[in-house]
Design goal:
Elements lengths: L1 E5 L2 H14 L4 E6 L6 H11 L14 E4 L6 E5 L6 H6 L10 E5 L5 H4 L4 E8 L2 E8 L2 H11 L2
Parallel strand pairs: 2-5, 2-6, 4-5
Antiparallel strand pairs: 1-7, 3-4, 6-7
Helix pairs in contact: 1-2, 1-5
Length: 151
C-alpha cells in the first residue's frame, strides 16, 4: 500500500505521471472518493502521461472516453450517473477486459460487480490537502506498486 499527501492539483498530476510510467500492461484501477477529491485530475494526468496530446474531459456525461495511446488503449469511465450494475454491463465495454488500462471513477455504481480491480486508488479530502491511498490487489499490481515505490 502506498499513502501520499497531495497538496494541489500539480502534485496529483505528478503522481499520475509516476503511476502511468509503471503501468505497462492491462489493468483495472478503481478511483474512489467524494466529489472534488481529484479522481478526474488523476485520470487526466495518467492519460496525458501515456502520450495523449488532446484535451482529456471528464466522462461524466458521456460515461466513457477511450484513448488509443501506446500499446494498450485506456478506458476512462465515470459511473456517477449509473443506477445499477446492469447499466454498467449495457455500456458494452466488457470486451476490453484484459486488453486495456481501465480508469474507473465511482466503481461502486456497477463496475465492482463485473470487474476485479488490480488497484484501488482512494482519494479523500483533508483540510488543505488530499490524501491518496493506492492499494495493489493482484500479483501483477504488487510488482507495479513496488516499482512505483522505488521511484
Amino acid at each position: 500500500m502506498l499513502r501520499k499527501l497531495l497538496h494541489n492539483e500539480k502534485e496529483t498530476l505528478i503522481f499520475a505521471k509516476e503511476l502511468a510510467a509503471v503501468c505497462d500492461g492491462p489493468c483495472v484501477i478503481f478511483l474512489c472518493g467524494p466529489l472534488g477529491a481529484g479522481k478526474t485530475a488523476l485520470a487526466r494526468g495518467f492519460v496525458q502521461a501515456k502520450g495523449y496530446q488532446g484535451t482529456v474531459p471528464s466522462p461524466t456525461y458521456s460515461l466513457v472516453q477511450q484513448y488509443d495511446v501506446g500499446k494498450w488503449p485506456i478506458v476512462h469511465m465515470d459511473l456517477y450517473r449509473l443506477d445499477s450494475p446492469e447499466d454498467f454491463q449495457d455500456l458494452g465495454m466488457l470486451d476490453y477486459v484484459g486488453k486495456a488500462i481501465w480508469l474507473i471513477e465511482w466503481p461502486e455504481k456497477g463496475a465492482d460487480t463485473w470487474l476485479l480491480p488490480d488497484f484501488t486508488c482512494r482519494l479523500s479530502l483533508e483540510d488543505a490537502h488530499r490524501e491518496l491511498v493506492l492499494e495493489a490487489l493482484s500479483p501483477e499490481a504488487e510488482k507495479t506498486l513496488a516499482r512505483l515505490q522505488g521511484m
